[in-house]
Specification:
Blueprint lengths: L18 H11 L7 E4 L1 H10 L4 E8 L7 E8 L2 E13 L3 H14 L7 H5 L1 E2 L2 E8 L15 E2 L4 H12 L8
Antiparallel strand pairs: 1-6, 2-3, 2-7, 3-4, 4-6, 5-6
Length: 176
């Protein structure tokens, strides 16, 4: 169980009929001044995925990348159209708390136009980034890479996030 809605930002989600419409909404309402990048909390992501469960296919995966050895990816596809997607990454550890802060400092210097503090946008807790980040460009996933093995049901996202937080030792409001 979790608090619903997760925030005022997900309290009255509009009617949306495609992933493209959803991405435009997220960039406008969950993004910063640049409008090509957005951040959502895990709870907000679940609100969004559950609200649009009828139009979204959700995939869950955890694997290393250049930023972390243990990155969580939630990729959203239009149901029945695997070539269109947006991948959100988050819920991951940095090697140390100092490196988490340094990453945010370095990114802030490169993105002077951001209104918010990156530590808040990423949801930094110690050495962990708890929030998810998405971008206006879709990930390089298309039909030849799309695989159903990572598909999950929309309402299974929150339990997976809670299990992941428990495994990483992240404090999040997960209740049994």
């Amino acid at each position: 169980m979790r608090k619903k809605p997760a925030s005022n930002r997900t309290k009255n989600l509009p009617s949306i009929s495609s992933l493209k419409e959803l991405l435009n909404f997220l960039l406008t309402n969950f993004g910063e001044k640049n409008r090509w990048e957005f951040w959502v909390t895990p709870e907000e992501l679940c609100d969004i995925v559950e609200r649009y469960a009828d139009i979204l296919q959700v995939q869950w995966d955890v694997h290393p990348c250049g930023l972390s050895e243990d990155m969580t990816y939630v990729t959203l596809f239009n149901k029945g159209k695997a070539g269109e997607n947006t991948a959100l990454n988050g819920l991951f550890p940095f090697p140390t708390e100092t490196e988490a802060k340094q990453f945010c400092y370095d990114q802030r210097a490169n993105l002077e136009y951001l209104f918010g503090q990156l530590e808040d946008l990423w949801g930094i807790q110690g050495r962990f980034a708890t929030n998810f980040n998405g971008k206006s460009l879709s990930n390089s996933v298309d039909d030849k890479y799309y695989t159903r093995e990572h598909d999950i049901e929309a309402f299974d996202l929150w339990p997976r996030i809670c299990r992941r937080c428990g495994a990483l030792g992240i404090s999040l409001s997960c209740e049994s």
